[in-house]
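tool_call: predict_structure(chain=1)
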Amino acid sequence: MLGAGSWGTALAVLLARNNHATQLWTRNEAQCVCLQEARCNHRYLPDTQFPDQLIVTSDLKAAVETASVILLAIPSQAFAETIRKIRPFVNQASSVIWATKGLDPETGSLLNTVVADIMSRETRVAVISGPSFAKEVAAGLPTAITVAAPDIAHAEKIADLFRNPQFRVYTSHDIVGVQIGGAIKNSLAIATGAADGLGFGTNTRAALITRGLTEMMRFGIQFGGEKETFMGLTGLGDIILTCTDDQSRNRQLGLGIGRGYSIVDTAASIGQEIEGIPTTKTIYQLAQKHGIDMPITEQVYKVLYQHAKPKDAVNNLLSRLPKHEKLE
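tool_result:
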């Protein structure tokens, strides 16, 4: 398990509870000692004790070369760099999977393409996504997610590692659609958070969620995702979760912006990576390049990167010419 943030820790605890020998890697030696001695992650999940099956390490080479499955839960901005670092140590028979929800900010590529380009197109890959907050997973509350892989048999094998009575795992072969859904929902959570911060109410939130789903489908289908995927856990399910609950870091950012706080100050108060910031830029640039109409994403981009006022952004959406409603 590469990445000892809230999500990486929660997944490592889940796997260890399922009786899988699990190593949780952090690059910070001091944090490694603290986690190992305390047997919990005081910063992110203070109420969750580490199972005996969970070992904490800062030795990347040792962790990777002995693992049959390598799971990354790190920010998308660090994904490619981490793949390059582990490449010399990865056994060819190992699987590389990730719970990162974003695209590569340098190239705009999906993360499965990053793995294929840096390691090998023969590397067995899978992505984990869906509506899930780390705190609730760590607490053992009922959760449902999706594991996607080009080879559905491999997806089933990976899914079995995570399954238990409280953690239901579905499988999919649509690795493109699952990744796109997990990325775009972050931008939509910023948008709905900002609208709520402005006090625009639940009608506005429902409109943003619904039309945001349309944008997700429009973008995803353009790049080869399947329409049904965006109506499932990794599309609509993740949108509902992150757009409506304040545990979402992206929604928290939007709330702060809508209430008049600066992006820098709000992000600092959250104190964790906010994937929606780089993802919005990447999605917007790809949409512009390919001529994909994504008005909500465009307005979030203008707020984050062009200093547009959140209220003006919402008004810009409302002032668009009326049109026939359609899902694509």
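agent: Residues 175-197 form the longest helix (23 residues). Proceeding to next step.
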